[in-house]
Amino acid sequence: DEAFQAYMSNKGSIPASNSTSATNASESAGTAISNNASASDNTINIDVESEVKQIRQWYSDTQNGLDNLMYSQYGDDIEYYFELGYAVKGIIPSGYDGWDYTRQYFYKDQKLYFAFVFKGSEEYRVYFKDGKVIRYIDNNGTVYDYGNIGDGEQLGQKIIAESDKLYPEFNCGA
Is the per-residue pLDDT at 16 higher than 70? Predict the structure, then answer.
């Protein structure tokens, strides 16, 4: 849709001073990050490195186990893999719902934990915990962590909205 296209074309506005390169992301391992944006927000401490490590393991387990998962299609476009009646991976093609990007959504215990959004060599990665974006990696490989996600929050919220809409359809009546 137009808002997503505008976001993607304006991605250069992310301030470099608030980021960590992908190669230096491991330097912040074990650091708990607080979000103290306003007094009304709940303060949440997240060990981003630990959470991302777990997410990468789940992702690897899913990708390596695709041959053992049930495969199906939703409509003419969306593909999904499921285990025990619940989706563990959904693939939404470019063009669906006005997005010009292919999306791959990954689920554990019926919760979205990772999204990979891409078009050709342009790639974005969004990591989630309990419905919050905890890490965003932009097309340049710049890493933004919880408490400082910047423009990745907008993309994350769009992903969550689409996932929430589609996820019940992914499941086989479970």
Answer: no
Q: How far apart are CA 140 and CA 159, in angstroms?
A: 20
For residue 131, give the nearest of 15, 12, 6, 42 by alpha carbon. Answer: 42
Residue 155 to residue 5: CA distance in whole angstroms? 11
- Residue that the structure tokens 């006005």 belong to: 98
Distance (Å, whole) CA 6 – CA 62: 32
| Separation CA 136–CA 125 (nearest Å) | 6
In the predicted model, is pLDDT for residue 67 greater than 80? yes
CA distance linking residue 109 with residue 94, whole number of Å: 26
Residue 35 exposure: Cα atoms within 13 Å on the Cβ side = 17
Report yes or no on whether pTM surpasses 0.85.
no
Q: Longest Cα pair distance anywhere in the chain, in angstroms?
A: 48
Identify whether the C-beta of residue 135 lies closer than 8 Å to the C-beta of residue 143: yes
What residues are paired with 128 via a beta bridge?
Answer: 133
In the chain, alpha helices (H): 2-9, 48-64, 152-170
pLDDT recorded at residue 171: 65
pLDDT (tens digit per residue) in 83-95? 988 899 999 999 9
Residues 119 and 44 sit within 8 Å (Cβ to Cβ) = no
